Amino acid sequence: MDDAQAPAPGETMTFGQTIAPAGFIGLSLKNALLNIVTLTLYRFWAKTEVRKRLWSKITLNGEPFEYTGKGKELFLGFLLALVILGVPYLALVLAIQFLHPLFALLIFPLYFGLFVLIGSAIFLAFRYMASRTNWRGVRFQLKGSPAKYGWSYLGYSLLTGITLGWFAPSMSMRLAEKLWGGLSFGDQKLRWVRSTKEGLYGPFAIAWVVGIVGYFVLFAAIVANAQSMVAGAEAESMPRVEAILAIYGYALIYAVVLMIASAPYHAAVLRTIAASIRLGDARFTLKVKAGELIVLTLTNILLLIVTLGFLTPVISARTAKFLVSRLSSEGEAPLSAALQAPRGPKTGEGLADAFDISPF
Hints:
Helix content is 60%, strand content 12%. By secondary structure, the protein is of the alpha+beta class.
C-alpha cells in the first residue's frame, strides 16, 4: 500500500485544563452589571463569553478547544422559541376566554407536548454547542432528529412515572446514547458501547428508598406544624413564626439528605456515560467519586445562594475543572483523519433558554 492510501495514524488522547475559577470573578461581575442594565438581555452574550473563555482553557494533546458561537445566535434562537411557545399558548388562552371553556381540554395535550419540547430543546442545545466547538479547526456535529429525541423524552418520562421512578436509570442511558452516539468529530463518528462495569440500580435503589422515606417524614412534619398553626389561629393568636421556619427547615434538610443519598447514583451515571463512548479504538474514563460530587454540589449551591447567582460563571468554571481534571483516555483515535463537518444551525439554543435547561 502506498503512502497516499495509508490510513492516518491514530493518536492517544490526553486531556488538560488551565481553568482558574477565581479568574472568572471579574467576568461574573461584568456580566451581572450588564444584565442588570439591559434587564437580562445581555445574558446571551454573557453566556457566549463564558463558554469562549472556558473552551480555550481546556486542551486535548496540548491544543485548546475553541468556541465559535455568538450571542446574536442565542438571542435569535430565543426569539424564535418565543414564537413557537408563546403564540400557541396565547391562542389557547384567548380561545378559552372568548370562544368556549371546552378549549381548556386542550391543556392536557399541550402539557404532554411540553415534555416533547423540553426533550427537543435538550437535543437542539447539544447540537448547537457541538457545531460551535472546534479543535484543530475541525468542528463537531450532532446528527439526529430533535423531534424523535423529544418524543423519546416524553415516552421515557411516562415510563419513569408509571414505574414510580425505577425506569430513570434506563432513561438516562438511552437518552445519553441518542446524544453521544450521534456525535462526530468532523466526519469521525463516536460510537456508543454501553459499559457494564458497574450497575446503576444499586445506588439508585438507595436514593429511591431515602427519597420515599424522607418524603413521608417531611409530610408528617409539615402536617404537624400546620396543625399547630391552625390551633393558634383558632385561639385568635398569630401563627407562630417558629412553625413556618420549621417547615422550611425540614424541607431544606430533606433536600440535602436526598442530594447526598443520590450522589453515588449520579456519580455512577457520569462514569458509565464516559465509559460507554468510543472514538476509534479510544475509550474514556471519568473518575468521579460520590464524596467529591457532594462537595462540589454543596459548595456550588452555597456560592449560588450567597452571591444571588452573580457568580454563575465561577460555578461553571469550577464544574468544568472538576470534570476535565478527572477525564482520561486509553487507546488511539483517528483525530488527524477527521474531515470538516458542516457548520450546523444558524441560531442558538432558544428552546433550552426558554425552559432554562441545559443538555449537561
